[in-house]
Amino acid sequence: MATTQAAHSPSPPPQPPIAQTPGPRAAQFQSVFNDALNKTIRTCSYSKFSSCFPTPARYASQTLTSIWQQIMSKVEASAKKEFEDILVERDVVAGLNELERLVGEARSRQASGTKIDEPPHTLPPKRLFLAHLAPYLSQTETELEGELKRLQSENEELMEGIHSQKEETEHLIGGFETFIEDLERANQIMSEEVEGNGVKKEVVDVEQELRAAGRDVKL
Fold first, then answer.
1. What is the reported pLDDT for 70?
2. What are the angstrom distances between the C-alpha of 25 and each of 31, 64, 97, 101?
3. What's the rounded Cα separation, in Å, for the pair 144 and 153?
4. What is the 3-state secondary structure (H, E, C) of the chain?
5. For 138, phi and psi rounded to 5 degrees?
6. Using an 8 Å Cβ cutoff, are 50 and 64 in contact?
7. Pick from 65, 47, 38: which is nearest to 162 by CA?
8. Which residues contact 97 (CB under 8 A, 6 or more apart)?
């Protein structure tokens, strides 16, 4: 009895370990991330960065270039580190590889027209788990791609805001410079008028008369 039952329900053979080398889906997922990150970094080019700091760009361009390179390197390294942490934490590469394998098997069976019925109790736990997890992994991949696009759009809007503020600042500075120039011209005109009309001499004469009148009163 036990022998017959074992023949109908064989123990599942051990499954080969899932390779951590990215398969087509995992490689495509990483490629999407790298493309989005590179596009975001290219958005903040040195020309745009230096335009926000015209004075350092004019008098200390090497220092400003070094600062820009450090910022871009740190942003890129930080983004890649967080992405790698997510891949490891969620075991994304192994999950996508298993998803790739399951999809390949399903397509192969569909193409050949064969149907292999495997009793669920003969399947290894990890395969059952990943079969249930496959829709979630696919949905997560779609959500992450959407999040990357959203971040890229926000970065572009941020750069547009920076340029708008820069233009507004330049406009205000230009107004102040014009105001100062007008004051200097007015001051120059007043100085010329005072000297030309002899006002200074009249003021001195009046002052001398007041002093003389004061002496007469004392006497």
1. 92
2. 10, 40, 7, 10
3. 14
4. CHHHHHHHCCCCCCCCCCCCCCCHHHHHHHHHHHHHHHHHHHHCCHHHHHHCCHHHHHHCHHHHHHHHHHHHHHHHHHHHHHHHHHHHHHCHHHHHHHHHHHHHHHHHHHHHCCCCCCCHHHCCHHHHHHHHHHHHHHHHHHHHHHHHHHHHHHHHHHHHHHHHHHHHHHHHHHHHHHHHHHHHHHHHHHHHHHHHCCHHHHHHHHHHHHHHHHHHHHC
5. -65, -45
6. yes
7. 47
8. 18, 19, 21, 22, 23, 25, 26
> Once rounded to an integer, what is the mean pLDDT over residues 99-104?
82
Q: Which two tokens stand for residue 200?
A: 């200074």
Weakest-pLDDT range from 3-17, 101-115, 176-190: 3-17
Q: How deeply is 87 buried, as exposed, middle or buried, from its count of CB atoms within 10 A (0-12, 13-18, 19+)?
A: buried
Q: Give the CA angle between residues 203, 209, 214 to the nearest 5°.
A: 130
Rounded distance, CA 82 to CA 147, Å?
14
Tokens representing 23 are 């398969």
Structure tokens at 36: 């989005």
For the entire predicted model, the pTM comes to 0.43
Crossing angle of helices 92-112 and 24-43, in 10° steps, is 130
213 pLDDT above the threshold of 70: no
